[in-house]
From TrEMBL, chain A:
This is Ion-translocating oxidoreductase complex subunit B. InterPro entries: 4Fe-4S_dom, 4Fe4S_Fe-S-bd, 4Fe4S_Fe_S_CS, 4Fe4S_Ferredoxin_RnfB, Elect_transpt_cplx_RnfB/RsxB. One of its GO terms (cellular component) is plasma membrane. GO terms for molecular function: 4 iron, 4 sulfur cluster binding; electron transfer activity; metal ion binding. Belongs to the 4Fe4S bacterial-type ferredoxin family. RnfB subfamily. The keyword Transmembrane applies. The complex is composed of six subunits: RnfA, RnfB, RnfC, RnfD, RnfE and RnfG. [4Fe-4S] cluster 3 binds at C153, C174, C177, C180.
UniProtKB/TrEMBL annotation, chain B:
Part of a membrane-bound complex that couples electron transfer with translocation of ions across the membrane. The chain crosses the membrane at residues 26-59, 71-90, 96-114, 126-143, 189-214, 221-241, 247-266, 278-297, 303-321. It is found in: Cell membrane. It comes from Lutibacter flavus. Its cofactor is FMN. This is Ion-translocating oxidoreductase complex subunit D. Keywords: Cell membrane, Electron transport, Flavoprotein, FMN, Membrane, Phosphoprotein, Translocase, Transmembrane, Transmembrane helix, Transport. Its main location: membrane. The modification FMN phosphoryl threonine is found at T161. Coiled coil: none annotated. It is a multi-pass membrane protein. InterPro entries: NqrB/RnfD, RnfD_bac.
UniProtKB/TrEMBL annotation, chain C:
Its EC number is 7.-.-.-. Binds 2 [4Fe-4S] clusters per subunit. Keywords: 4Fe-4S, Cell membrane, Electron transport, Iron, Iron-sulfur, Membrane, Metal-binding, Repeat, Translocase, Transport. The complex is composed of six subunits: RnfA, RnfB, RnfC, RnfD, RnfE and RnfG. This is Ion-translocating oxidoreductase complex subunit C. GO terms for cellular component: plasma membrane. Its main location: membrane. [4Fe-4S] cluster 2 binds at C378, C407, C410, C413. PANTHER family: ION-TRANSLOCATING OXIDOREDUCTASE COMPLEX SUBUNIT C.
Amino acid sequence: MTDSVLYSVLLLVSLGVVAAVVLYIVSKKFYVYENPLIAEVDELLPGANCAGCGSPGCKSFAEKLVNTEDISSLFCPVGGNDVMKEVAAILGKEVVERDPTVAVLRCQGSCEVRPKTTEYQGPRTCAISAMVYSGETDCQYGCLGDGDCVKVCKFDAMYMDETTGLPLIITDNCTSCGACVEECPRDIIEMRPRNKRDLKVFVGCLNEDKGGIAKKSCSVACIGCSKCEDICPKDAVIMVNNLAYIDPVLCTLCRKCVDICPTHSIIETNFPPKKVKKVVEKKVVENVAVIKEEVIAESKNIKTDA
Amino acid sequence: MSQPIIISASPHVHSDRTSKKLMYDVVIALIPAFLVSLYVFGIGAFIVTAVAVISCLLFEYLIQKFLMKTDVTIGDGSALITGILLAFNLPSGLPIWMIIVGSLVAIGVAKLSFGGLGFNIFNPALVGRVFLLVSFPVQMTMWPTAVENNTTMADAVTGATPLGMIKEGLMFGDTMTNITANLPSNLELFLGLSGGSIGEMSGLALLLGGIYLLYRKVITWHIPVTMLVTMAVMTGIFWVIDPESYASPLIHILSGGALLGAFFMATDLVTSPMTKKGMIIFAIGIAVITVVIRLFGAYPEGVSFAILIMNAFVPLINTYFKPRRFGSKIKSKIV
Amino acid sequence: MLKTFPKGGIHPPENKITAEKGIKRMAVPKVVNVPIAQHIGIPAEIVVDRKDKVVKGQIIAKSGGFVSSNIHSPVAGTVTKLDLIIDSSGYKKQCIVIRTDAKDPSNFEEVENPLKTDIELEPKEILQRITDCGIVGLGGATFPSQVKLNVREGTTLDYLIINGVECEPYLTADHRLMLEKAEEIVVGIKILMKALHLKKVVIGIENNKKDAISLFKKVIKKEDGIQVAALQVKYPQGGEKQLVRAILGREVPKNGLPLDVGVIVHNVGTIFAIYQAIQYDKPLIERVVTVTGKKLQNPSNFWVKIGTPIKDLIAEVGGLPEGTRKLVNGGPMMGKAIKNTDVPVTKGTSGILVIDEEEASRGEAKNCIRCGQCVFVCPMGLEPHLLMNLSEKGMYDKASAEDIMTCIECGSCSYVCPSHRPLLDYIRFGKNIVKKLETSKN
Ligand code: SF4
Ligand code: SF4
Ligand code: SF4
Ligand code: SF4
């Protein structure tokens, strides 16, 4: 009895030894030379493997950085300028500094302002419902509310707001990797410059319908009235197909357009609040989740205003 | 219109068969066999079945609610079936705590740990049964006598199944003729007056249930027919060669878990292959393994093992026996 | 033994409640919204402008490419605007809105053209006429007919199959057309026989339309080379590939067309449209539409002008019944749910189906119980549960290797799944992505 135990133990041990030797030889034999710089660069990169740089992962981006002569067109949005500078230092190449950006949601069509006119039955993903039809509301440009963008965000920078049915972006977490922009079938999410203190002014609507139709489907829709275009001192507002777009480069954040928009379609974020009362209100709302994208506060303003 | 109209992708009509209905059809099909077992074993069969069913449902509820924190699906009928089938594979009179352990293994280990209904690889009831058989071999093979009022069979099967008797008899060098003399007749086997697990009793009742399932299109003929035919052919060959050391195919099919296995266990939707070709391969596999175990293995009965072994091959069978794609082979000729 | 395709298929309740209802002519609508994309392929190009007066049958949008089709004005009237209107795709699409001229007599005297059997045009002219008249496949796929008939030199083509199957539940448009216009359809068939130099034609009709089968048998008695085939009642018997397999036993290769096995398939409705185009130079401006639903007061079949808003049709059958939950453009298996009743009838609208709550809601999707039902019913020999899984997980390469592209979107799998899995939803999605990936690769 003890003999057989001994034999089996011996057999297993020797098997293990043989396997280890084989593995060692194989790994030696098939060793591929790799530029040590790649490992070094890879070390610097954030390791998020988010594909925001266009490469499938950090490692392959590191390879690309090492193997490309001119890396000025390559950029890691997650690491940002700091990381890129370090990379450039190691590789002795030039990088171009970029303005940090952040994702914004260009739709304010919450359940309240944009009534549902139909009911969708089927898999709840934006991609599939967009394939079937234009969504549960009468606006065929706005958010479908099934949260494909949230699912794809690797940095917990997004969540679905139950009350509005829209995704919210937590600006502080957003690395501007762009995954959500890619994913959204409606191209609702845009990368806009962060600016100082994260001040932003942008049109929160993509509805290209004529004014009346747009307004009927959603009360905060851009109706294409051109008032913002007229008032903008810097010509930053571009009107195409009944829809205003604010060029982030030209915009000086003067907020004239925000006030004049009759449907409150233009969103301003992180500006000091104008009315003291609302600050108090906001504090109460926000003491649970300290970081909250300002869009929600904004849309609340609109609701109380309207 | 009061409510908004619904939009969905085609098709806009659906058949009214639901998985729940399928499950309850299986339950209905098991009723005849249950009645027979009540007749043969009396209250013991009832207790075993009730305990198994209740503990299966309870474990499913508890695990889903408190451990997995998912939706509770005890209403879908699948835990109910697991309970019944587990009970049907146990001897009546098994200690209650063992039944509960068996149910826990069936539901907790074999079903829910794989992800619940539809994700389990092995038939949960059989896993429970085999677990008990391996852990408590003595109790699991203590076949109680049929209840008193059933005078015909009372002596003949005390403490042994027909298959067990054959195995034992052959081991001691007895000849088939002698053994068969002690066995219940084929007709008695068919009607259900022999020893064994609760649900294995009556070939007739199982056949009735099986026909109901076929009629309701819950199962197709592929698995049961292929399995039984293969078993008959294999055992038939041995029997023809040496009728003194091998039992007749009829005995093999009518006794033990062959019919229960063929109609109810092997055809379990989740753990059987999804193509007809695959089903045939699967059924042949079960039959071959069963016969090998029965004739040459240590256990008198092999259906449970055979089904579990073939369960493990189902993913492989599904990958290699695909339906023929339309248009993949052009055999048509243009005149 | 009735002919059928070998594998898969389902038999949903037929519900052909309008089979006995003769085709009525709908009153000319006050306004028509004519979409410029009514066919598969490139949308037509608008050639009229606001305020233009148009006469009935005038071209208002010209074919925009090879796979495209002309669009004609269904009424005499004035173009009021070029607007975006939701069509059955669920999205707003470019439409030409025409207000009917209440005084123009051509709008109101509908001449029932007498039967004309002599075919005067030469093959080349026939094909040209079909192109000019904007004929597309009226079975639902709306593939421009001239493209289908454009048989390159040297291609073997020996059979024309006429699709009178109408395997979709509820719909009876083709059935009624066959009963009422059998002789015209046979002339239409002869036109195609002449145009394509064909000798052999089979008309496939499902066996639940016995009256149509016997009628056609009578009408074709004197004709050479035309046969009628009674087919088993099984969905999707009317799928092109299934039909060719059922009637001739020829299997269209994967990703191939019936032409690859020497066959062309046309729907009976298309044949009738061709007949009218060739014999009377009448463009495709109206079609037969079944307006049906269990709760409707007065379901029936209608001759409807293209562009008629669906609400006009609904009004004609007694309005939407209480508790309506779904409107479908087409049949229940392959039709599209529409968003509102302003959606216009297009060349592909074979029926309007009004569904109530009970039929409309799809059960909650549960886990796949691996019952294999979807595999058994798939007429293309696919494994829908697997394809759904793969496209849900984003494994498109694998899905493509499992022949996802050969799915004909018949919906049999979703119909039959006892766990109410949205199989076709995901398969369609996967197909879209695979198609995109393939085009980007090339
Ligand atoms: S919100 Fe969008 S851009 Fe920002 S981290 Fe998430 S996926 Fe990337
Ligand atoms: S923003 Fe786009 S991806 Fe996100 S929920 Fe809305 S439609 Fe879906
Ligand atoms: S929809 Fe596609 S996968 Fe489903 S049954 Fe039809 S052909 Fe098969
Ligand atoms: S029919 Fe439904 S439950 Fe059955 S195998 Fe297919 S997907 Fe799974």
